[in-house]
Structures are given as C-alpha cells and as structure tokens.
Amino acid sequence: MTQFLPANLxxxxxxxxxxxxxxxxxxxxxxxxxxxTGVGMYGHLFEDPTETPxxxxxxxxxxxxxxxxxxxxxxxxxxxxxxxxxxxPQNDPNATGDAFKTVFVSRINYDTREDKLxxxxxxx
Length: 124
Description:
Strand content: under 5%
Structural class: mainly alpha
Largest sheet: none
Radius of gyration: 44 Å
Distance between the termini: 95 Å
Number of strands: 0
Shape: elongated
Order of helices and strands: HHH
Oligomer: single chain
C-alpha cells in the first residue's frame, strides 16, 4: 500500500541513521581521605526544645464549619427569644377572630376573593 504514496510522505517512513556508539562513562574519582559524617555533631547549634514556642493550631475546615453552625444556631435562638418577648397575639392588627377557629383551605383558584371564601365558610 505504501508504494502508492508520494515521495514526500514516503520520506516520513524512512528509517533513521543508527545511533553512534559511545563508550560508557568512567566513574569519577572518589577521594578516599574524605570521610562522610552525619549532622549529629551540629545538634548544639539548633534551638533548645524548651525555648521553642508552642505551635499555633489552625482550625480545620470541619471545625470552622461546626463553629459557624453553632454561631448561627445561637444567633437564631437569640432572635427567636427577642421576637417571642415582643409577640402579643391579642394586639395583632392582622389577626381576625379566634386563632382556634382558623381554617386552612388549599387548592383553590387564584381568582377567588376573600369575601367569597368568608361567605362560604362562615357557617363553620
């Protein structure tokens, strides 16, 4: 099939020249007089552990979330207690009649007027 390709495309499939041989590199000369030591001899240069300040603990994502939830819950409790102290159902201008005689009606047409509902339900 490749015999039908033009010369410029056949050149893309031609093998490349082989890589030249290079001898393996020689290992570097290591000085036998040099001795390697650890860092133990430099321990006195580090700071004293008794003088090290305590690490500052940053709250994790879950701890921040929990504290935010508790703060929100506390503010809700405060708001509810404030509203309960000012709530007086006897002097509410929007209240009509006895609260124990309230009827909840659902699935009615939006065009239904309040006076029609009152006329239909005033016998109850």
